[in-house]
Amino acid sequence: MGTIKENLYEINKRIKASAEKAGRNYNDIKLIAVTKTVDTDRVEEAIEAGIESAGENKPQELSRKYEILGDAVKWHQIGTLQKNKVKYIIDKACMIHSIESISLAEEINKRAQSKDIKMDCLVQVNISGEESKHGVSPEEAMSIIKYISENCQYVKIKGLMTMAPFDASEDEIRRVFRGLKELSEKIDNENIENVEMKELSMGMTNDFEIAIEEGATMVRIGTAIFGKRDYDKKQ
Ligand SMILES: *Cc1c(COP(=O)(O)O)cnc(C)c1O
C-alpha cells in the first residue's frame, strides 16, 4: 500500500480506465471513500488529497466524525441503519444508501420533516437472493418505492444500492450488478412521482471495475484507499 494520496491516485486512474472501457464519462462516477474504522486524522488526509464524499456504516461513527470534520466532506450513510439510529445522522448525512423497509423510510421521513429537510435515499436491494445479504428483493423494492412516493414526501428516492456476494465469480458479480441496473430501468419506466432512478451505488474494492462497466454511478471504496481495516483499534 502507498500513502492515502498515492492510493487515491491509483483508484481514480482505475475508475477512469473502467469508464473508458465501458464508453462512459468518468465524471458520471462518484467515488465514495469508505472511512469506517479510519481515524479522523487519516480521513482529513484523504480530504486534503481530494476526496469529496465519505461513507460510514455506523451512524454514531458518522455523527462523531461529522462533529470533528463537518462539511469538509459529504457524508453518506452506507450500511444497515436501525430505526432508532436515524436521529444521529438525519442532519449530517447527505444520502442514506440503505432503505430496507417501509418502517425505516417512515422514520427517516418523520425525522427529516422535523428538521424541515428532504433526505436523498437509495433502496438497498438483494439481487443475488442470498439469505445472509441485507436488502430487499426486487419485487419489494418496487412496492417500497411506490409506498414512499405516496406517503413519505421528505424522502427523496434517487436510485438503488446493492452489494455483490464476497466470494462469487466475476460472472456472478456481473450478473448482480446488471440485475440492479435492469431493476432501476424497470422502476424508471413506471414514472413514479417524486422518484428518480439516476444513482446506482455498487462496487467496492474488489469489484468496482465490474460495477462501473455495468453502470455504477457511485462506487464505495475503503480498503484500496486506507488499507485493511483494524476493527479492534480504539479510535
Ligand atoms: C465497508 C463497506 C464498503 C467498502 O468495502 P471495501 O471492500 O473496503 O472497499 C462498501 N460498502 C459498504 C456498505 C461497506 O460496509
Structure description:
By secondary structure, the chain is of the alpha/beta class. It has one domain: Alanine racemase (TIM Barrel), CATH 3.20.20. It contains 9 helices and 8 strands. The chain has helices spanning 4-21, 40-48, 59-69, 86-89, 102-115, 138-151, 170-189, 208-213, 223-226; strands at 30-34, 53-56, 74-77, 93-99, 119-124, 155-161, 195-201, 218-221. Strands 7-6-5-4-3-2-1-8 form an 8-stranded parallel sheet. α3 (59-69) links the parallel β2 (53-56) and β3 (74-77). The radius of gyration is 17 Å and the shape is globular. The mean pLDDT is 95. The chain binds pyridoxal-5'-phosphate (PLP). Pyridoxal-5'-phosphate is lined by residues 34, 36, 57, 78-79, 204-206, 220-223. Its cofactor is pyridoxal 5'-phosphate. Pfam families: Ala_racemase_N.
